[in-house]
């Protein structure tokens, strides 16, 4: 099941629907999010930054479980957080602050692992690359920067390097409004939009601008076709523009180079976009509070969802198991099956409270098993758990024992897989080095 999740900039909660059937699930309460402030963490729970007053000097980050409409965890970072992002596994949450700083928290413990100054003005966009190795940030200063997570945590490299980022793209003249990343890790493309009415296509591997596209309107949202042939730009004029990535449009185009056409239903400003490859659907959020589902093959609207009130400024598509219906499920049953959420995010680095919590969460005799959903156990901890379960000896522990053995086997297989990849890479580098030396010797002898 594909869930459509949407939030607004005013306190109207978070809407959640089944994308393909239109059925509404729980509406999550007490949410007023900035653009790019809503994220699903590892498909386990929803997190959203809160910014009720643009001039506020403090903000919060809230957590909701899938089965309860009320906020369950509240965090109060050192400054208001604009954009939020999470890696695919849900082990880290990254937030961009008003000051231009980026904060990286560990989800399991809530610890603030890293904070660094990334931009001169507020961070407006944060997105991970497909393989989670890179973090891309956009800012009100018009700059886009690419950060390698390995480099960010390498203190020795930081002392020697002139700057922390891998690339700094400075082609935009005004604030960055959205960023999307293609497939391919370090070989992917980045597409960015800005208040300067341009969308720019950047190469990660080459570190340079590939294409600059000028639009008739400011573009606030981008969605990329999975085939990477076209991308869609949501404009403040109510239109969704289709732009080509690999070819120029015909000279008869009404919009100029690279823009193939537009989708329009005379709505207000398009504030958010998402693409669903299942059915080739484009989902758009608008200032009029409507969420429209477009069939990209016919360019027609096939379904409309209505947010309770206010503009829609965030849209997520989440693969999820069917949620229990509140009408037929008791509150006690919901509490019984609801996973325990991780703790609040720490305000400062090296927080004692979060360190203590980490020690509890990985203890096999500590919290209920639901909280272990967020942990990533070492083989040593797994061995200890297996030994304890073998000593207990019941039907339930036998099932748990089998699960742990299965996880342990998968971990060992993954380790062997990485070792094999390392050996192959090492052999490849050695061969390249030998071939290069042989070529130099032959050229030297010929002269």
Automatic annotation (TrEMBL):
It holds the Pfam family WD40. One of its GO terms (cellular component) is nuclear pre-replicative complex. PROSITE patterns: WD_REPEATS_1, WD_REPEATS_2, WD_REPEATS_REGION. Keywords: Repeat, WD repeat. Coiled coil: none annotated. WD repeats lie at residues 116-149, 169-212, 263-304. It comes from the Eukaryota. One of its GO terms (biological process) is DNA-templated DNA replication. PANTHER family: WD REPEAT-CONTAINING PROTEIN 18, WD-REPEAT PROTEIN 18. This is Protein ROOT INITIATION DEFECTIVE 3. It comes from Cucumis melo. The lineage of its organism: Eukaryota, Viridiplantae, Streptophyta, Embryophyta, Tracheophyta. The gene is LOC103493552.
